[in-house]
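Appendix B. Worked example

We walk through a single record from start to finish. Start with the input: the chain for sn-glycerol-3-phosphate transport system permease protein UgpE, Aminobacter ciceronei, length 298.
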Amino acid sequence: MAEPKALVPASGHDKLMIGQSIAGIYVAHAILILGIVIVAFPIYYTFVASTHSLQTILRPPLPLLPGDRFVENYYEALFGGVGRIGGVSVATLLVNTTIVALGIAIGKIVISILSAYAIVFFRFPFRMVFFWLIFITLMLPVEVRILPTYKVMVDLGLIDTYTGLILPLIASATATLLFRQFFLTIPGELVEAARVDGAGPWRFFKDILLPLSRTNIAALFVILFIYGWTQYLWPLLVTNRNDMNTIVIALKKMISFADADTEWHLVMVTSMLAIVPPILVVVLMQRWFVRGLVDTEK
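Next comes the structure step. The output line below is what the pipeline stores for this chain.
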C-alpha cells in the first residue's frame, strides 16, 4: 500500500485559483479597470484642459490630448495671479490651504490624544461626565454653532487670520473617542511596569503611548488633513481678503455665470493643483494609514 503523500502548501497562483475560475478573475479585473477609468477620466480631462488656451476650451469639442500651453498656463496661475480673485496667485492659495489643513490636522490630534490620555489613565471627579460631554459635541458640528463661533472670532479680531481659520475646527470628539478606545486596550501590566520603573505621567506618555499610537496618529492625520483641505463654509465666512482665501474658496470665486468671463484654463490649472497635496499625503502615508486602520501594534 502506497504511503500517503505529505500535503504541500499551495503556491500563490494556486491560492488564487481556489474557489475561483479564470473567467471570474478576468471579469473582476475588467470591472476594476472600468471603475478606475470612470473615476480617473474626469481628472485626466481636467489636466488636458489645463494645457490648452482659453480659446480652445471655449471652442468645443475639447481635444482628448494635452496641448502645448502646459508651462505657460501653470506659470501664469502659480506666479502671475488670477484676475477674478484680485490677482492673487495660486501659490499663495496653496500656502494658505496647506497651513490651514496642517493646523487643523495637528491641532485635532494633539488635543484629542491628550484628552483621551487624561480620561483613560487619570482618576478625577466627573471623569466620565467630561468624556460624554466631549462625545455629545458630535451632534454639534460647525454649521450648528456657526453664528456664535463667528461672533467670538469677530470679537477677538481673528477675521482674515490663520488662527481664525484653524482654531474653531481643531476640537474633535471622534478622534478623542478613537484614541480612548485604543488606550483602553493597553495592558494594565504595561502601565504597572512603567510605574515600577519610575516613569512619571509625561515619560509614560512620551516613551510608551506615543510610539504605540503612531499608526493611529498617521491614519487620523491623513483623514484630518483632507478634512481641513476641503473645508468650504467656515473659510468662506472668516476670510474677506482674497489673499487669505483657501484654494476651494478661490475656485468658487474664479467661476462666473458667463463662460466668456471665466478664465477656464486657469480654473483647470487650479483644480489640478488643488488635488495634488491630498494625493501626495495619501500616497506617501499609505502604508501607515492602512496599518493604523487594521493593526493595533501592541
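Two observations about the output. Residues 90-121 form the longest helix (32 residues). The domain at 84-294 is CATH 1.10.3720.10 (MetI-like fold).
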